[in-house]
Amino acid sequence: MSVAELEPGLLDRVRARLADRPGELTPHRVAEALREAGRPVGDATVLSVYESLRRDVVGAGPLEPLLRLPGVTDVLVNGPDHVYVDRGEGLEPTSVRFPDDAAVRRLAQRLAALAGRRLDDAAPFADLRLPDGSRFHAVLAPVARPGTTISLRVPAARALRLDDLVAAGSLSGPGAELLRALVASRAAFLVSGGTGGGKTTLLAALLSIVEPAERLVLVEDASELRPDHPHVVGLEGRPANVEGAGAIDLRVLVRQALRMRPDRLVVGEVRGGEVVELLAALNTGHEGGCGTIHANSASAVPARVEALALAAGLDRAAVHSQLASGLAVVLHVARGRDGVRRLAEVGVLDRGTDGLVTVVPAVTAGADGGLHEGPGAGALAEVLAR
């Protein structure tokens, strides 16, 4: 018997009776609660109710099988009737369903509680990292439509290498060799792209080929980078608690990282005032620094950095001056219509006579997977030859 075949409201009545007498959840206790509810107690009914209640209190509930699928990167819940997974080829609908929105809400609140966060009508959204490393975000209904939403970003079981990305079609062979040369040159770079475009995956792969003798210090809002490297130190931001105290932002952590003798300073995602500290570090002898940034294209990166730095108190002239002297290359990744994330463009920074920085395309990836040189190819060759 499936949960859908049970009498409406039966699960809630059994759950309420079990809550009145706390104890370990067992099939025997479920059978007793069913008898008290005046329901026939058959093995199929008992096991169906037991499994449904067990999923409510263990792991990610009905989502647990989806999280274990090979290659899954995201699990998305849009209310009780729409659950999707992404296994690297775009979103796929699944057969998983919740009985109602209250069940989705309970799961979201339980997962938030695992990380010590509050999720209720007074604080209807949460963004955090679960103990297993998954990135969790939820918004409760009615703020979210068509019901409570849950977004789970699943960490890779192992850090992907450049060869893995070539095998998956995200990189061409020549593209991988170009990126190896970039890392070896110790030039500072940013990986740009949209949400879910593969920025973090590419950055982790690049960090995995850094010389083993180098010390990597990672600064992240939520720990997602897992480079396959023997010397990695991670610093993770912390949101405010329910009293609104105790927050640690990335700007503070970047300053701490600079005191930890990093050979490579890495900011997992540049999205706030930490860009000021990162630019300062790149201009004061910290070679090989890198990070990711949200942008629609490589050419949009200077404007994005400018907006973040201006909001943090750095004037426009100073932003472009530090950007020109500190950052060398932008790697832009994008998800194709086939759902595959690919390196789309490599650009170099150029400062014009007006003092403003632009990104000049050096290499673009064609539809055939080959690399095509752009007007910035010569400048890129100079960067790689340093």
Description of the molecule:
- The protein has 386 residues and is α/β, with parallel strands linked by helices.
- The protein has 3 domains: 1-58; 59-155, Beta-Lactamase (2-Layer Sandwich); 162-384, P-loop containing nucleotide triphosphate hydrolases (Rossmann fold, 3-Layer(aba) Sandwich), CATH 3.40.50.
- Helices cover 34% and strands 21% of the residues.
- It is built from 13 helices and 15 strands.
- The strands form 2 sheets. It has a 9-stranded mixed beta sheet with strand order 9-8-10-11-7-12-13-14-15, with helices on both faces. Strands 3-2-1-6-5-4 form a 6-stranded antiparallel beta sheet, with helices on one face.
- Helix 10 (274-282) links the parallel strand 10 and strand 11.
- The model has no long low-confidence stretch (mean pLDDT 86).
One letter per element, helices H and strands E, the order comes to HHHHEEEHEEEHHEHEEHEHEHHEEEEH
CATH fourth-tier homologous superfamily of the largest domain: P-loop containing nucleotide triphosphate hydrolases
- Arrangement of strands in the largest sheet: 9-8-10-11-7-12-13-14-15
Mean pLDDT: 86
Give the terminus-to-terminus CA distance: 68 Å
Low-confidence stretches: none
Helical element count? 13
Précis, in short:
The protein has 386 residues and is of the alpha/beta class. It contains 13 helices and 15 strands.
Can you tag this structure with a few keywords?
386 residues, elongated, 15 strands, alpha/beta, Rossmann fold, 9-stranded mixed β-sheet, Beta-Lactamase
